[in-house]
UniProtKB/TrEMBL annotation:
Residues 21-185 form the Lipid/polyisoprenoid-binding YceI-like domain. Keywords: Signal. InterPro entries: Lipid/polyisoprenoid-bd_YceI (IPR007372), TTHA0802/YceI-like_sf (IPR036761). It comes from Sulfurimonas hongkongensis. Residues 1-19 form the signal peptide. This is Lipid/polyisoprenoid-binding YceI-like domain-containing protein. SUPFAM superfamilies: YceI-like (SSF101874). It holds the Pfam family YceI.
């Protein structure tokens, strides 16, 4: 048992030796989501103010670290009135909970696990990883890109605001689908 643990720790250490550090490129990254509206369609949104870093092991085509922070006030659903309501106390309560954070805890196959914190609640969530690979851009910067998709339940994070529809059901779906496209520039 001890040998197995040492082997796992050793392989993680060796993998991190091959991993390069990247800063998230905000101009080529999208932190998006969608949620059911009136049970018949989806409302899409994104956040425009965020920062993050990751480590990517090109040899093994996997992440060894990922950390991100989103400023909730930057939410944009293409409807100013709705965005203002989302920032208010009964939903995101931006003055009290200004950030959403994610810190990767492990990668298993094509799944990335991490501690996701929203409205002061932290839960370990799973996101599906799609590797975009690496490239050198025309200016000599090394870049890496990937996609992450998953879902969370709003109520798990205290997002319980909703209204009942006359025809039955709720105005806002319980599941929030996360759709994240990340591109980073290697730290020199």
């Amino acid at each position: 048992m001890k040998f197995t643990k040492l082997l796992v720790i050793g392989s993680l250490f060796v993998s991190s030796l091959f991993a390069a550090s990247y800063n998230v490129d905000k101009a080529h990254t999208n932190i998006g989501f969608k949620v059911k509206h009136m049970m018949i369609s989806n409302v899409k949104g994104s956040f425009s103010d965020f920062k993050g870093t990751f480590k990517y092991d090109e040899k093994n085509k996997k992440l060894t670290a990922l950390n991100g922070e989103i400023q909730v006030a930057s939410i944009d659903t293409a409807n100013e009135k709705r965005d203002k309501h989302l920032r208010e106390e009964e939903i995101f309560d931006v003055p009290k909970y200004p950030t959403i954070t994610f810190k990767m805890t492990k990668m298993d196959g094509d799944d990335v696990y991490g501690d996701f914190t929203l409205k002061g609640v932290t839960k370990n969530i799973k996101l599906e990883f799609e590797n975009g690979g690496t490239i050198t851009d025309p200016w000599g910067n090394e870049r890496a890109g990937f996609s992450l998709e998953g879902k969370i339940k709003r109520a798990d994070f205290g997002l319980t605001y909703n209204s009942v529809l006359e025809a039955g059901g709720f105005a806002i779906g319980e599941d929030v689908k996360l759709e994240i496209e990340i591109e980073g520039i290697k730290v020199k």
